[in-house]
Amino acid sequence: MKSKDAEMKIPESELEAEDRGAEEERPRESDSNILDLSSDYPRDKHISIQRHLADLEKLADLRDDERKPCPLCPEEKFKACYSHKLHRHLQNLHWKVSVEFEGYRMCICHLSCRPVKPNLVGDQTLSKMGAHYHCIICSATIVRRTDMIGHINRHVNKGETESRFSTVRAPKSSYKVVKESATDVQVLPNHSTPQKTDSYFNPKMKLNRQLIFCALAVLAGERKPIECLDAFGATGIMGLQWAKHLRSSVKVTINDCNENSVTMIKENCHLNKMKVKLNSREEDNGETVGNGEENSDTIEVTKMDANVVMHLRSFDFIHLDPFGTSVNYLDSAFRNVRNLGIVSLTSTDISSLYAKAQHVALRHYGCNIVRTEYYKELAARAVIAAVTRAAARCNKGIEVLLAVALEHFVLVVVRVIRGPSTADDSAKKVRYLIHCQWCEERVFQKEGNMVEENPYQQLPCDCHGSMPGKTAVLLGPLWSGALFNTGFLRRMLLEAVQYGLDEAQPLLKTLVCEAECTTPKHFSTHSPGDENKQEECGVYIRTQNTSAESYLVHGKRKSEEVLRSAAKRQRAEHCAEHPPFYYNVHRHSIKGMNMPKLNKFLNYLSEAGYRVSRTHFDPMGVRTNAPLAQFKTILMKYSTPTYVGAQAEGPVHLPGEIQVGEEVPAAAVMKVEEAEGAEDKSGVATTVFTESYPTHCAAE
């Protein structure tokens, strides 16, 4: 009997141990069901996710005569209580702070689902759990309610609206159709937030897309067909505009590394009645036109990394528009781009380029920049310097066709010319800039490897001699060449007029005037030379309207002489490029004086014998080859005092020894600046000119 009792006791002890182990493992198994993906569909949701408060109360099994624990709180946090107290607890602590989504409420949970980090003493805190929410869509546990709301919104923006872990695209009803330049694209409701959606579409970049289209149209007029690549397609709006308007002149390839974006690009191609080519196979939706236009209505869509697709294939036109900087893709872009091809890139990291995050600019572009009055042109030249170095590494030189820096982006368009000699010539134009922080004077550092004893001597101002300490900084390396090609810009303007791109036309007119350094009243749509011929980096490019008779005359020797003379004329015009940088009129205005109107001031500078134009970088900027001292002198001459109300507008008379058009000593300008802030005894701010200009203002 004892042996039998012993035999009976052994299994009883084993059963008790198994029961205790099962009780200990039950919450863990439930937790694993909460956090892990179940293969069954529909997936069981967490107990904290309910539709109504009554459903939550059913879990507690409320009874008047019994104490019941809270189903969402551990016993050490909330002890078992009667129904009326438990009802208030569920309503106030769990239901009122819940997050609602599609009829469900994600209540706050205090169970052992999310462990808290152990403290410094090293106590066992796995039993102490923090309050959190369970996502109805995925297995995430979020602590804060605001973070949970943002987490759900990100799921909705990505189209993940079903309560499963699989990514499901949003239904067709949630898509929005946007039309731009006769091209329709489908976008998600959050299309303007690039960090939260795959199909990024920014309506503010319409001007950028029009400029790139004009550049491609000009290239398509030189030779056809050309292979062009939109490396970051997103919705495919840019590539669709190329194929829809330029037709058989281009072979468009749209690339994106995101699968959802590639799917949307294909849908947008079908929406615009375009065929899609994938892996040498064409997908036709049955709505395209006849077989005669098969090649012109076909767009190739690829799903690769941008660096990979540019390494594998050669293109005539490449456009880079990533989210942020594009320096990571420059080496791949210049590796296989064809000779006389075009590379355009849009940089949207304006916080670093506009000197708000200088350490980021140094990291990405290897350039030291500070905030100056010409910071936008500084950003464009920093980007071109990075482009030049990337092209030179591939034994290619560049010719800058266009550089635009606006509020949201910096656009650079360059033509690529193969050869080590052109690469060396382009690399020599990357130089450092000496910038005076006191008077904003600037000058590019002289070429050469010899160390100069006093680099301040290169600056036209004498701030270093008259001011204590160091007054100048060394910026760069920057591009020191021209930012515009006049012939290319004129042809872009003609393309903009032809295709009715109204937003790009005013900017292109301003760019043409800025490239020629002339005022808008001297602007004309016809260039002084032959508008059908264009020379870039010594290479002649024929346009579509150029005939053989315009290049050749009878006889081989005469034709060579004509080409030689035309090249000399083009080089002479090319050497008279626009001056670098510009001056802001407000920055150099004088206190107590009313400045003349900007257009009148441009005329005054032009009458003084200087080249002058406005600039798109700054609405109050003036691009001129006049020295800063002469710029201030002319501005001072034609300004009127503010305290003389009845005085007619007219120039302030200067002493006879200082004439407009002559170099003004910097000391005289400094005397004017020192006298700007003087105040009279009555406390009214006035301007004293008795030392420098006593003739006119002493009588006042």
Describe the structure.
The chain has 700 residues and is of the alpha+beta class. Among the domains are: 94 residues, no CATH class; 275 residues, Rossmann fold (3-Layer(aba) Sandwich); 59 residues, 2-Layer Sandwich (Phenylalanyl-tRNA Synthetase, Chain B, domain 1), CATH 3.30.56. Helix content is 35%, strand content 17%. The chain is built from 21 helices and 26 strands. The chain has a nine-stranded mixed sheet with strand order 11-10-12-9-8-13-14-16-15, with helices on both faces. Strand 24 and strand 25 form a beta hairpin. Helix 5 packs parallel to helix 6, helix 5 packs across helix 15 and helix 8 packs parallel to helix 9. The chain is globular, with a radius of gyration of 36 Å. The N terminus and C terminus are likely disordered.
What is the number of beta strands? 26
* Mean pLDDT, all residues: 77
User: What strand line-up does the widest sheet have?
Assistant: 11-10-12-9-8-13-14-16-15
CATH topology of the domain at 177-280 and 296-446 and 467-486: Rossmann fold
Q: Which architecture of the domain at 177-280 and 296-446 and 467-486 would the CATH scheme give at its second level?
A: 3-Layer(aba) Sandwich
CATH-assigned homologous superfamily of the domain at 177-280 and 296-446 and 467-486 = Vaccinia Virus protein VP39
Keywords: Isopeptide bond, Metal-binding, Methyltransferase, Nucleus, Phosphoprotein, RNA-binding, S-adenosyl-L-methionine, Transferase, tRNA processing, tRNA-binding, Ubl conjugation, Zinc, Zinc-finger
Subcellular location: Nucleus, Nucleolus
InterPro entries: SAM-dependent_MTases_sf (IPR029063), Trm1 (IPR002905), tRNA_met_Trm1_C (IPR042296), Znf_C2H2_type (IPR013087)
Region (Disordered): 1-41
